[in-house]
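User:
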Amino acid sequence: MVDAAIREAVVSARVGRLATVSGPGQPHVVPVCFALLEEVVYTAVDHKPKTTFRLRRITNIEATGSACLLVDGYDEDWSNLWWVRLDGRGRVVRDRAEIGRAIGALVVKYAQYRQRPPAGPVLALDITRWTAWSAR
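Assistant: Predicted structure:
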C-alpha cells in the first residue's frame, strides 16, 4: 500500500513522463496527460497534432509491455523537490468498459478534454511498483 501523500501527489500532478522501450531496447519518453484509478494509470492519444494515432509509445508497449510513468515536482527551492516513479506492465486497452472509465477519468481531470475527449487508443499501466523520493 502506497502512502496517501505520495498517491495524492501523483493524482494531482498535471503531467507525467511515460517511458517505454522498443523490442530492440531503444528507450522512448514522452510527456502525457494521465489519470490514476486504483493501481492503473491511463493515458490516451488525444486530438493534439500528430502525424498518426500509431505512435511509438503504442508500438513499444505492444512489443515489450514495459513501461513506467515519472511524475515530479520542481521548485527553485530545492528543498521542495520530489518525484514518484510508477513501474509496471503497459498495455493497449481493448475492453470498451475500461476505455469508458479511462476516458471518463481523463475528462474529469482535464478541462481541455470536456469539449473534445480523447478519441485515439487508450494505454494502461498496471502498476507493480511505486518508487518515491522527496527532498523533505
